[in-house]
């Protein structure tokens, strides 16, 4: 649908994710730039490589994981801005939840599968209204998690992502 918005979206996601983290209250555990140690070890194992500390992972590895596991295969089918929010949500909540939130925003059955009905709805989603609805669905999801320790950060991220997604429409 559009030329790939991956690099611009990746830059913003990495800004949101920050650097290295090992917060005991975060279920992800040891994390670098949003990639958990467990995910990095599994990704390396698929490539026949031994496990190594995610905190020392080369940026090229992090970028490849984001592209292959969270951007592909759907983001390039989406309008600019919507692709970035979907990608961000896939990173933060997983691809299934990201799809459900998108489907809720599009007003279609939220089954977590991007099939023909969802792809057809995506075709008409190139608008600020879709971005605002998707942001609202994301915010509602975080509020319903009832995790006050992280809520403000999540909602700040939703606002940051929405602002940048809307800005992408201007270019």
Please give a structural write-up:
The chain contains eight helices and three strands. It is mainly alpha-helical and 171 residues long. It has one domain (6-169): Up-down Bundle (Chitosanase, subunit A, domain 1), CATH 1.20.141. Strands 1-2-3 form a three-stranded antiparallel sheet. The longest helix is centred in the C-terminal third of the chain and has 22 residues, at 148-169. The radius of gyration is 16 Å and the shape is globular. The model has no long low-confidence stretch (mean pLDDT 93).
Topology:
Blueprint: H1 6-17, E1 20-21, E2 31-32, E3 35-36, H2 37-46, H3 59-71, H4 82-93, H5 95-106, H6 116-123, H7 128-144, H8 148-169
Antiparallel strand pairs: 1-2, 2-3
Indicate the overall shape. Answer: globular
Query: Termini distance?
Result: 15 Å
Range of strand content: under 5%
- Total domain modules: 1
Per DSSP, the total helix count is 8
Question: What would you give as the CATH superfamily?
Answer: Chitosanase, subunit A, domain 1
H and E order? HEEEHHHHHHH
Which structural class do the helices and strands define?
mainly alpha
CATH architecture: Up-down Bundle
Number of strands: 3
User: Helical amount among residues, as a percent range?
Assistant: 55-70%
Computed Rg: 16 Å
- Biggest sheet, spatial arrangement of strands: 1-2-3
Kindly report the CATH topology.
Answer: Chitosanase, subunit A, domain 1
What is the overall pLDDT average? 93
Question: Class, according to the CATH hierarchy?
Answer: Mainly Alpha
| Main beta sheet strand tally, sense and closure | 3 strands, antiparallel
Stretches with pLDDT under 50, minimum 5 residues = none
